[in-house]
């Protein structure tokens, strides 16, 4: 039963064909069984989950439930969850118990979801493979020798391996969409400001976006509806009337469901560096969208080629400052032996942070330093504006932009850990949307010869979540890539 | 060689908001350590700053009051450095684009006015406090003060003496209290100055190398620190040395400044715009509203007091030292229906002395403007003498009732009946033949002694002017 989508599970829950307690018990059993294989979770909250499930069942019995009531769900361990450990995958916060809920956690609790645990991730969300966690690497359910992508790898695996129907993630350079692509599920990065960052442990404030993982675009729409909303505690949160993102998906259409849709194909996204199998799958997906009535338009985003360098100036700059609060003074790890204050800082941070986090703090500190600020940080911000201008121009000619989510399918664990630049290039197609703040979704569109999923990215203009979700949904109505299940025992056997 | 001292001041005024600049925690002074530190103030992971509009409003009020330009768009930046009482590892401040640019403050030294230009004023948050005592070799951290809103007011190097610097600091102190943006409490650190001091040969246009002196939390310390520092620099140069740009700390116990850190080990603060806070946008309507709600400013009021009431510059300055004093004066004159000079001399004299004696603010004076006017009216209509009025004032201060009640109860009404005074004078003259002889011999003192005896015999109630006149007539 738990293999169903949120939409299907909600029907079953409301019809009392299944209880949330049963669903949650099944989710917990699967999570516990799968833990040694995939290491998707850092914290499992069995007692809290079952209590929440019983509360959801009580609400459902009274007829008070909503579309998410009783749905088991996992949160990325970078989101604060009151009373539960929130580690950010770091030794620095290995024992840190969050004293409050993040906005999106609070919103999803209010919507009746059942929090089963916290998922593993790249340390402080810095990475594209979920290998940098203090709690060990996360493994891809399609082949445990491969990475699941990152940084929200644990959440992606939890959904892909059918441990839970839904999970949250955060996307700073592609950390929702890239693992969604590499694990064969859907991951949505909403418009910047649509989901409050309150309670999201900051990596790069101007780039951090909370967002949902689901098996279908429709599930992402249901989740986003609960997660979005204005929050006065985040000054970058946007105050807009609530939107039913799934409404457009339910709209009855004539045979050509995407009639009138103009798809932009950036010539820059189809060049070198894209794996041939990925390119072929994306081409086939575009042909499918054409069949559904969409028209194609080649567009140019000339400044987008600078996305990766721009990102690797701005994100580390912000990170170097955001991570300064982890100093051993008030909470988190503190070195045992130190001779003075400076020594305490040095040892605490040397012990508490892993290599990738240190690399980014060093880079960020450097680019903000006196004499380098103009050449790096300021220049990067200027190019960031040029990239945004490119997209603004493009959306005059097209409605959505389609291309691969990542240049290749999943790679083997350890394959890129010694080459940070190769690792960074994984995010070459996803970073632009983080820089501009516009929404983008990754959905499955194929499988490689090795049986690894391939992701299709659909990007839209600011606040066009409903449109990109609709395109993704119509594609999923016509195809079955999203129904492919990784070769795991419990998934094939279960209900 | 003659030397000129050049001084610029950086002043931190704590803005009088009920809550902090980026969190809802209260700003009240003196609470138990860390009892007023919210999740934002202690910088828990995941929390975000939300700007307090009240702090912005106060900064605008200041900008308008000093005639500065309010930036329609200003930017908050992060100033990055590690210190245990700086919870985020950065201070949120304004760097490239402050909320207020320019403006000036006028100071007066010995009736000469001078305009001190302001460079800028910007909003920022205060840090917490490190407590080095009571922790057995360790340091305690109190984050109650972390996030308290500050307005940093930076002057141009326009001051040429410690006296000018103190006059500027006092004028600024009076102004921020006048417009209600800061309580000005120096002991609690609500108003703190750092002084940039350099010296140069008199007549030179080039600026010398400056030192910044920190920790000046009283006007007296400011004065002494600048005097010491100027002397130190001059002696250094005259001895063939050179001033090194550095930050120095003033030690009031030894009355000296000591080096804290040199330019070489100055921090690289790695300023960059805070991505958690959008640019602060202030529209013209907001500025206009603040402008329209601004009280009459001290300079304007001072000038008006001179023209409207015929006061001297000195009196006008004293009576506009604070809004409360000015209101007290104008209320008294209004109730009295005139006599501003009489009111001024009583407020600056008896009232001010009583306030100083008891270390009270004028708002807490037991004699209200209405009551003082009641007393002054009895001087005006000759019911009591000025000297007698002083005793009545003291009785009023002690809470014995209004002037008329005290005058009646104690029988203090002045004797102005010519015949009655003449009878007393005659009695005194009859008993003092020797003194009369001295008066006739031309001794002024002897005359005064007779006046004194008449006053004494009348229990101080005889109209002194009449006593004088009658005595002069009788001895003349």
CATH topology group of the domain at 6-257 in chain A: Amidase signature (AS) enzymes
For the report, how would you describe the main beta sheet of chain A?
Answer: 11 strands, mixed
Q: What share of the residues of chain A does DSSP label as strand, in percent?
A: 5-15%
Largest interface: A-B, 44 and 30 residues
Average pLDDT for all residues of chain B: 92
Task: Report the order of strands and helices of chain A.
Answer: HHEHEHEHEHEEHHEHEHHHHEHHEEHH
- Tally of helical runs of chain B: 15
Topology:
The complex is a heterodimer of chains A (495) and B (476).
Chain A: H1 6-14, H2 20-38, E1 41-44, H3 46-61, E2 72-76, H4 103-110, E3 114-119, H5 153-160, E4 166-171, H6 177-183, E5 186-189, E6 209-214, H7 217-227, H8 247-250, E7 262-266, H9 276-291, E8 295-299, H10 307-322, H11 341-352, H12 355-368, H13 374-394, E9 400-404, H14 420-424, H15 431-436, E10 440-447, E11 453-460, H16 465-478, H17 489-493
Parallel strand pairs in A: 2-3, 2-4, 7-8, 7-9
Antiparallel strand pairs in A: 1-3, 4-6, 5-6, 5-10, 9-11, 10-11
Helix pairs in contact in A: 2-3, 7-16, 10-12, 10-13
Chain B: E1 3-14, H1 53-65, E2 69-70, E3 73-74, E4 76-80, E5 90-94, E6 100-101, E7 104-109, E8 112-125, E9 129-131, E10 140-142, E11 149-155, H2 162-178, E12 191-201, E13 211-216, H3 219-238, E14 246-251, E15 256-262, E16 272-273, E17 280-281, H4 284-293, H5 298-309, H6 313-319, H7 323-336, H8 340-358, H9 369-380, H10 386-397, H11 403-409, H12 418-430, H13 433-440, H14 444-457, H15 464-475
Parallel strand pairs in B: 13-14
Antiparallel strand pairs in B: 1-11, 1-12, 2-6, 3-17, 4-5, 4-16, 6-8, 7-8, 8-11, 9-10, 12-13, 14-15
